[in-house]
Amino acid sequence: MIWLTLREHRAQLVAMSLAAALIAIGLAVLGPYAAAQRAALGVDTCAPLSNTNENCVDLMIEWQRRIGPASYLVLALVIAPALAASYVGGPLFGATLERGTHRLALTQAISRVRWSATRIGVVAVVVVACALVLAQFGWAVAALNGLPGGPRSSFDLFDVEGPTVVAYALSGIALGGLIGAASRRAVTGMFLGLLVFAAIRAFVAVDLRPNYDAPLVAYANTTSGTAAAPPKAWILHQATVDAQDRPMDYRDVDQLMRGFRPSAIAGGPTDMGAYLATLGVRDRFIYQPAERYAKFQWIEFRIFTGLAAGCALLTIVLIRRRDA
Amino acid sequence: MNTVLETSGLTKRYGRTDALRGCDLLLAGGKVTGLVGPNGAGKTTLLQIAVGLHRPTAGRIRVLGLDPWREGVALLSRVGFVAQDRPLHPGFTVAETLEIGRRLNPRWDHAYALARVKHFGLPLDRPVRSLSTGQRAQVALTLALGKRPEVLLLDEPVANLDPVARLELLEELMGVVAEDGPSVILSSNVLADVERVCEHVVILVDGRVRISGDTDELVRSHVLISGPRRAGPEPADGEVIEVRHAERQTTRLLRGHASPSEDGTEVRPATLEEIVVGYLRSEREEVPQ
To answer: How many domains is chain A partitioned into structurally?
Structure first.
């Protein structure tokens, strides 16, 4: 049955492995190249001229020209699991049910559970292997994004490195497989699988991920920039708030700022930020600290592997119970 | 006499349509049985239930004494099946197709399968999609026979084949059965073929068994009586299955015997085709009542 699964999905599995290998090689070569070019050009050590920063901008543009379309590799890394979900997951059951060849396999001496579970298992192993390779290239992504000291926020690479990548790929394929099995159409599995997977990914990333743990809050005087949140934290929300912690409209802030001069003359704070702080007006940062990165990765890993397991189980039940 | 297939009250409903409605059937082994009936009579459904692809809505079915839905794996190592349209993986070579059988069946006879394929001159390294329909039919049949099955179930095995390929396949089938091979149950719309190869015939109409009997016995027990057109009394020594009126002549299909009478009636044995068509027509005519 392992042989049959590999043979039946040879084209997809080979294509997927090749694509993963190409992306991996590209990142392994172009990541260091981008970093080296950046260092050679001195993009990050550039000191702006006294009257303009054009000299530094020119260096940046030259660097981008030299690495060319390599930055698309980063995009490839983000969409690879979704495409794998579509290309491998959709036809996993959809194609054979559509063509009727499942009647060939299911009338040999093999149980439906073994048939469906082996298909899922074999493909899952290949997918995990590909995803494990691709999950190692966060550093190259950072280099291609022009982040020499690593990403600004430690969460920037959340979607393209580490265990989550494996979980995304698995769940995508399981989703495509389930939809293909339910609809008995490969194309439905491919497109609907892709859509549903993208929707779930977006929902989790936007609505769930910021709340895996209660976010922390820090305040700073309005003129002190982002210093309030610790370095590399993931800033979820930033706003100027009043004494009651309510976000303020900039017009209200403007209104308050008019009182600064008279106050300073009268012996109040001579710094605008400090002045506003006396009125309870500060910048509020809601953030997830960098230390939570690994924890969040595992939480999201569990969500998506759970989704994958659920879809796989549902597919097996469906295949077992339904008329073939 | 061993029983290969036994159903009682077998019913299958797809949504609102009944494919089988209380089908009672008992088929003995060691024979070639033909399932005939109009499209939608339930032939395919019956065969698919018999190999555990579909689950009966109600009633009971046993194949070789096993429940196909619950004991599918045990049953399918002993039953060969070729589904309608002979599904095969088009990208697989002939050798790879046989490999499926070898890997998924405990009783697979690879030497036999290879010999068969060689006998028909099927190229092992060619993909199935490049084969003719007749060659594909042979590959599909080999895959079913390689299991060395006790029962072979074939759904429309000769559909879409040209006359030569059809004949070859049927002769091949008869040969296989002759050499102490499996019992065969096949469905077909080609009554001449059924008459040629099937020792037993089951006529399915509207999801029920209309008649089940040995081909010879059926042919022997039915006669066609034709004579001048009249609406007179029906012959008494048998059951009239169907009456056809032509312009001047009336033809009756009779189950039983008849002797020519004085008024110019002719009596001749009915062919299987005439018998089956007679039963099918009579069924249709009864429907409006």
So the answer is: 2
Q: Write down the pLDDT at residue B1.
A: 55
Asked if A314 has any chain B CB less than 8 Å from its own CB, the reply is: no
Kindly give the parts of chain A with pLDDT less than 70: 148-151, 224-227
Buried b (16+ CB within 10 A) or exposed e, B252-288: bbbbeebeeeeeebebeebebebbbbbbbebbeeeee
Measure B4 CA to nearest chain A CA, in Å.
Answer: 17
The CA-atom distances, in angstroms, between B126 and each of A55, B11, B90, B101, B139 are 65, 42, 10, 17, 12
Range of the domain at A16: 2-211+293-321
Is A4 in contact with B103 (Cβ distance < 8 A)?
yes
Interface of B to A at Cβ within 8 Å reads 48, 51-55, 72-74, 76-77, 79, 81, 83, 85, 87-89, 91-92, 96, 99-101, 103-107, 143, 147
3-state secondary structure of A236: strand
Predicted-complex ipTM score: 0.85
Q: How far is B70 from chain A (nearest CA, A)?
A: 10
Q: In what order do the strands lie in the sheet with B183-187?
A: B79-82, B151-155, B183-187, B32-36, B200-205, B208-214
CA distance, residue B279 to nearest chain A CA (Å) = 31
Position B87 scores a pLDDT of 93
Report the percent of chain B where pLDDT is more than 70: 92
User: Pick from B76, B85, B99: which is nearest to A107 by CB?
Assistant: B76
pLDDT at B172: 84
**Which pTM does this prediction carry?**
0.87
**CA distances (Å), B230 to each of A20, B119, B245, B264, in order?**
83, 58, 9, 12
Last residue of a domain, one of B165, B185, B206: B206
- Cα distance between residue B75 and residue A307, in whole Å: 35
Q: Which residues of B touch A1 (CB under 8 A)?
A: 103-104
Assess whether B150 and B24 both reside in one domain: yes
Query: Does any domain span residue B213?
Result: no
